[in-house]
Recover the amino acids of this structure.
């Protein structure tokens, strides 16, 4: 092979190698990254669609649970809500055998959507009656949250104990959208 033909062949091979390198750097590599990211987006979208389908299938259960929670909130009328919570504490104290020595309700306007009724409850009894009382408060259907609890004794034998509870109740101020 002549030197000229060899030089032309080497120049063509070198130009082709440089061209392939540029094509790889400027075209193939970005296209590969784009394709991988597109594949990940497709996977993420399929997962979101599957999650949405499961949410749609659970719609009745979710709505039922939310309606149950909404109906168990305190009434928007403060006097009625206080009467309801006092009645509930009276019922729980009779069921458990606890004597309520103090009940102090106080309203707190948190937002336009809801307000809370904070109650300080003082009670006396033995450990069994107090634990039953706490269980009744926590497991009842009312929208109440036990914020804090203090437990003390009145005598050296710990037969008579005192209980201090800080409880908050939820009252929704927005009307039910299904009632409109």
């Amino acid at each position: 092979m002549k030197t000229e033909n060899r030089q032309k062949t080497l120049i063509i091979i070198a130009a082709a190698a440089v061209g392939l390198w540029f094509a790889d750097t400027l075209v193939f590599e970005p296209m590969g990254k784009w394709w991988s990211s597109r594949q990940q987006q497709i996977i993420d979208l399929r997962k979101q669609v599957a999650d949405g389908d499961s949410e749609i299938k659970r719609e009745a259960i979710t709505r039922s649970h939310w309606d149950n929670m909404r109906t168990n909130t305190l009434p928007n009328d403060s006097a009625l809500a206080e009467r309801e919570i006092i009645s509930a504490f009276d019922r729980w104290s009779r069921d458990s055998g606890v004597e309520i020595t103090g009940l102090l309700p106080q309203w707190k306007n948190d937002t336009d959507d809801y307000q809370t009724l904070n109650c300080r409850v003082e009670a006396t009894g033995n450990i069994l009656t107090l634990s039953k009382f706490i269980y009744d408060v926590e497991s009842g259907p009312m929208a109440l949250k036990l914020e804090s609890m203090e437990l003390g004794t009145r005598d050296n034998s710990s037969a008579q104990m005192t209980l201090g509870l800080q409880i908050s109740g939820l009252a929704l101020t927005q009307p039910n959208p299904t009632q409109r």
In short: The mean pLDDT is 86. DSSP finds four helices and four strands in the chain. The two ends are 93 Å apart (CA to CA).
